[in-house]
Queue: 2 jobs
Job 1
Amino acid sequence: MIAGSTVTGREPYLAARVLNALLREDYGGLAGRVTRSKDGVAVVLTGGHRVRLVPGSLFQDFVAAPEERLRLEDVLDTLREIAAPADAPGVEAFARECHEALRALDLHDGHREDVLARLGRSVPASARNPAGPSDVAYAPTASETADDGASRSLPSTQARISAAREAVTAPSVSEDAVRYETLAAFVDHPVYPTARSRVGLTDEELVAYAPEFAPSFALRWAAVPRERVTGTPVPPVPGLGRGGPAGGLGTSDPAESRRWSEAAGAAEAFAAAGLPREFAQTHALFPVHPLTVPAVREIPWAVVGPVPYLTVRPTLSMRTVAIGPRAQLKLPLTTSTLGLRNRRSIKPGTLADGARAELLLRAMPSPGILLADEQTHAHAGHEYLGWLLRRLPPGEIVPVAALLAPLPGAGTVVEALADRLSGGDVEGLLGAYLRLLFGFGVRLFVEYGTALEAHQQNLALVLGEEAGPGTDGPGSGADSAPFRLLVKDNDGLLASPGHLRAAGLTVPDFTDERMLTDDPHALADVFVTITLHLAAAAPAFGALPAPRAARLVGDALAEALEPYGDDPMARLLRARTLDAARLVGKSMVTAGTLVDKARTGARDVNKFYGTSGPNYLRQPPAALRPVTQQRTP
C-alpha cells in the first residue's frame, strides 16, 4: 500500500486495473520493476512506492493486491517515467482516457439507482452491500471497493435473491434485448482497463447516449446525393417510404410507426425529417446519430434535416441502437472506445465485408447457431455516413456480455437464467453454452480455417422455441442446450483461402485484405484471445470457482476437438490451448493508444499480440473470486 495516500471513490479500482494492464503487457519494461523478497512480490512505482502483487488473475501472473489503495496519478507518473520519448503523445492520450473513465464510473454510480428504477428494478438502500472487485467482475461501486476490513458474506436470505431474480424471469419480448444490453453495460471489459472512456464526450452526452444510463433518443437524418451511395438507397426502417423490406420491424412508438407507414412515399419521408420534398428525386436518406450531427454538418454535400425522428435505445456497443424488438441500426460515431485508435466511425467497405463474412458463415451451417441478418446496409464514402440494419431472430436474446451483470438486490443474470432453464444449475447452463461455442468455433477452425472475432459483445443466447432447430453437424452440443447461440458483427473474421477452397467454398472478395490469411498461428491467435479468453473463460471464471471453471472450459474444448483426432489443425489448436504452458494475449493498451502503429508494426490494432499469461486451463488461478459469490448493488 502506498504510505500516506488517501484515495476515495472509484480511483483505487481503476488505478489497479490500469497497473495490471501495464504489467500484463510489460509496457516500457515495467515487469523489470517487479521484485521478489521474503515479504512477497511487489512492483516499484515512481518515487519508490512498493505495490504488493498477488497471483490469481485470469490472464496474467500477478496483479495488484486487493488491499492496495492506489492513486491513479502514481500509476500514470510511473507510466510517464518508463515510456519511450516517442510515445509521449500516446501516454498523455491514455492519461486522458484514464481520467475520462474515472469520471464515467463516478457518473454511473450517481445514476445507478435511477437506471435500475427505470428498468423496473429499483434498489432499496438497505440492499446495498460492499463487495470487492474481481478481475472479471462488473465494475463495482465506490462503496464496494472500500477496504473496511469487515468480513464479506452472501446475502442472508434466499428471499432477497429470489426477489431480485424475479425481475428478469419473464421480460416482454419488446424490451428484453435492450434491458439485457443495458445490464451488460454495468460490466467492465475483462481486459481493457479504461473501457468506460468515450473520448471527448461530456457528462451530459454520456447520460443522454451511453447504454449504462438506459436512455432513449431520436435519430437525426441527412440527405445524401444518390450518386454517392453504395448499397440500399433508403434504410428500411418504419415510414421511410412504402414497400421497403422493413415490413413489421416496428418502433418503440406505434403511433409514430403508423404515421410514417401511412406516408405517401419518399417525398413525405424527407419532409418528415424537415428536408425538402424534392430531395426525394436526387438524394437518399441516411440515419445519423445525434452525436455525429456536428461532423456530418461539415460534409459539404450532406444536408442534415432539422427534425429528429425514430426513437431508439443504445445497445452495449453504443453506436448500435435498437429500433424495435427485432431490429438494430449500426451507425458511425466520432468517439473512440477501447483505445484512441479504435474509432467508432464506419469506413467504406466495412459493412460490405461484414455482409460477405455472414454469407460465408451461412455456407458453414452448424447446429444450434443462428446468424443475425446483416445484409442491408449503405455507405456514402465518408466514415460518418453509413448504416447497417441488423435483423434479429425470434426469441429472448441475452448477450453473453450480460451473463455476469448484477441484478438489483442480489444475484446475476446467469443465475436468473439458470433458475429458469436448468433448475438453478449455473455450471450446467454454462456447460451447454460452452459446448455450443466450442462446437462451432472448433469446427470453423479445423474444417474451414476460419476464426471469428465473436467476443462476448457479439454473441448472445437465444431462448424460446421460436429460435428453431439447429442443423446437423459434429460435436456441437446443440441437442442438449436450452437455447441457441446468436452470432453477429462478423467484419473481424479471419479466414484461410486455402482451407476455404479445400472445403469447396468460394473465397470472399473482401475489401479488407487483413481478413484473409493462410497462417494457422494467426488463426489460433484469434481463437485463443477471442473465443477462449473473452467468450468462454471470462464468463465461466466469473460465475464459478476457478477449479470448476477450468474443468468446465477445458472439458468442453477437449470434447469439441476430440472428433478431429490427429487433423493438423486440431493438433495445432490443442497445442495452443489445452497443452500450452502459456496462452497468448493481446497488447490492447499498447497498440490501442500508447504506441503509434508505425512503431508497433500492427496491421490491425485489434489483432496485436505479444503478451502471454499462465494457462488457466492447466493451473487455475486459485485466488480468483467468481462474481456470483459477490454481493451486487
Note: The chain has three domains: 11-118, 203-345, 397-629.
Job 2
Amino acid sequence: MRYIQYTPDEVKVLMSCLLLAREAFTLIRNLGLGRFGLYDLDNPSLDALSEETVRRNLNIAGQLAEAMHHLPADKDSVNDLECMLLRMEQFLSKNPPLEGQYRLRVFSDGIKESIS
C-alpha cells in the first residue's frame, strides 16, 4: 500500500474542502426539505411548497452541485481547486441570502488563504 505524504498546509486545505462539501450537502438537503424524503418516498412536505419554490430550490441545488463538481480529488488538483473556488464565488454572488445562513464563504475563504 502506498501512502501519500501531506504537509500541514495541504491537510488544512483538504480539511477545509471536506467541511465545504459537508456544508454544501447540508444546504442541498435543506433545499429538499430535510431528511423526510429519505424515510418517506412520498415527501408530504413538498405538497406545501409552490411550484415556483420547488423550481427555485432545484435551481439553487444545481448551481451548488456545479460549483462543487470541481472539488479536488487529491493534493495535486490545483486547477480543480481554483475552478471550484471560482464557481463557489459565482454561486455565492448569485445567492447572497445563503451566505449568511451557511458557512460556504468561511470555508472557501479558508481554502483561498491556505493556498495563497
Note: The chain has one domain: 8-115.
